């Protein structure tokens, strides 16, 4: 099992998490922030495959605190106990509903609701089973988009398990769907989930760092682009995403806290996209933007 390390500390508010996420991204594979139960503080956790030098982490946190306008928090860094998180996650994963979508694990032996669009999904080493507010928000937004218009081509950028590409395929007649992720393990999970849901001929998972893969970076190629990642990468990818979405096409963005909406929206409005709708679940925001025809 791969060694994993965690850097964690408390913050006085959700608003202060944005700068901290940005300064820790060079060290961390995943950064998450959540409210501490029974307290006014928020806990930020950054997970790394290698533990960075103490002085570099200390400087990054000090820089982030200065940007956020707060005192530099004390942090703890160390190895994460080696637990089989895949098995633990799969045991705790129960079916969820998000609009017409019904997402269930492979060990589910109950009845799939009539009229639902059912997705069999095991997380494995990837993110996205429909339980998190960002994934659920994207599923609801996909349903809303497909009620309004037809989609022939779609890109799920940062696909994790592939759940959003699979949902788009099930709810539409799209024949050209691409699911990409920087993590080869996530792409492997996506390939398996497409096979389980019999969509391997319609959804093509590939490894790519953002839009670096040439075939993904074609101007106006996609009727729909979905990106459920962190606020920082969403802002950096704004020019590229705006370039590859077709005129009149839609962009679904998530992975951002409600207080990060303004910064993310500003990045996309500068590229000529406009806000069509938003959904907020459990403190997380999902945005729907469109490009003028």
From TrEMBL:
Q: What is the lineage of its organism?
A: Bacteria, Pseudomonadati, Pseudomonadota, Alphaproteobacteria, Rhodospirillales
The entry's protein name is Ribosomal protein L11 methyltransferase
Top-level taxon of origin: Bacteria
What reaction does this enzyme carry out catalytically?
L-lysyl-[protein] + 3 S-adenosyl-L-methionine = N(6),N(6),N(6)-trimethyl-L-lysyl-[protein] + 3 S-adenosyl-L-homocysteine + 3 H(+)
Entries under PANTHER family matching the protein: ELECTRON TRANSFER FLAVOPROTEIN BETA SUBUNIT LYSINE METHYLTRANSFERASE (PTHR43648:SF1)
Function, please?
Methylates ribosomal protein L11.
User: Quick one: which gene encodes this?
Assistant: prmA
The residues that hold S-adenosyl-L-methionine are 135, 158, 181, 228
The similarity annotation says:
Belongs to the methyltransferase superfamily. PrmA family.
Q: Which GO MF terms does the UniProt record name?
A: protein-lysine N-methyltransferase activity
EC numbers, comma separated:
2.1.1.-
Alphabetized Gene3D superfamilies for the sequence: Vaccinia Virus protein VP39
As given in the record, the signal peptide range reads none
Task: Choose one Gene Ontology CC annotation of this protein and give it.
Answer: cytoplasm
Give the originating organism.
Hwanghaeella grinnelliae
**Keyword entries, A-Z:** Cytoplasm, Methyltransferase, Ribonucleoprotein, Ribosomal protein, S-adenosyl-L-methionine, Transferase
- Quick check: keyword S-adenosyl-L-methionine in the entry? yes
Its top-level enzyme class, in one word, is: transferase
Q: Where is this protein localized, as stated in its record? A: Cytoplasm
InterPro entries the record matches = Ribosomal_L11_MeTrfase_PrmA (IPR050078), Ribosomal_PrmA_MeTrfase (IPR004498), SAM-dependent_MTases_sf (IPR029063)
Q: Name one GO biological process term.
A: methylation
